[in-house]
């Protein structure tokens, strides 16, 4: 049975909180009641932080990483190797790779992986902008750093086909990562070694 509320304001708060991923109505109610017990300044600060998050953060026009400016700090940095682009699924993967301290290039965030069963095709992702980026001729290497899952491999192969006509070097993470693992949950040491020991993508088609 649905929880009956004596307060419409509380019910509205619970409904909105339960829209968050992984938050059911029971958890949402517990969070709402917790906030009622906190100092009003703390709750106000939380609300303002969420509003600022939505209003002030957008996406980098170059790599599609989250950014407060037109270019994210990585793309804007003159200390990064702008001729090497690491292609990742999402912003969390950027954070994971940055935490390894092993990569000094820039990124390209696809915003997902090709998954026909979920209705996600190439046009739903930032693949076209990657092709345009490579087409400018100022990129030497594209690293395909997608999770070694069926969706990741499908997306890798699609990008490989789209970029094959160019002269860009295409590599992928070394398979020190277990098949089926997602980058987000891979430990930093393994991820760092996979990045350093990356291999030509075309080699993945070779058989013994």
Question: Describe it for me?
Answer:
- The protein has helices spanning 8-17, 25-37, 40-56, 73-76, 91-100, 127-135, 150-163, 188-196, and strands at residues 58-59, 66-67, 81-88, 105-109, 141-144, 169-172, 199-200.
- The protein is α/β, with parallel strands linked by helices and 208 residues long.
- The strands form two sheets. A five-stranded mixed β-sheet has the order 4-3-5-6-7.
- Strand 3 (81-88), helix 5 and strand 4 (105-109) form a beta-alpha-beta unit.
Helices and strands in order, then pairings?
Blueprint: H1 8-17, H2 25-37, H3 40-56, E1 58-59, E2 66-67, H4 73-76, E3 81-88, H5 91-100, E4 105-109, H6 127-135, E5 141-144, H7 150-163, E6 169-172, H8 188-196, E7 199-200
Helix pairs in contact: 1-2, 5-8
Q: Give the ordered list of helices and strands.
A: HHHEEHEHEHEHEHE
Kindly report the CATH topology of the largest domain.
Answer: Dna Topoisomerase Vi A Subunit, Chain: A, domain 2
Structural domain count: 2
How many strands, which pairing sense, and closed or not: the largest β-sheet? Answer: 5 strands, mixed
Rg, please?
21 Å
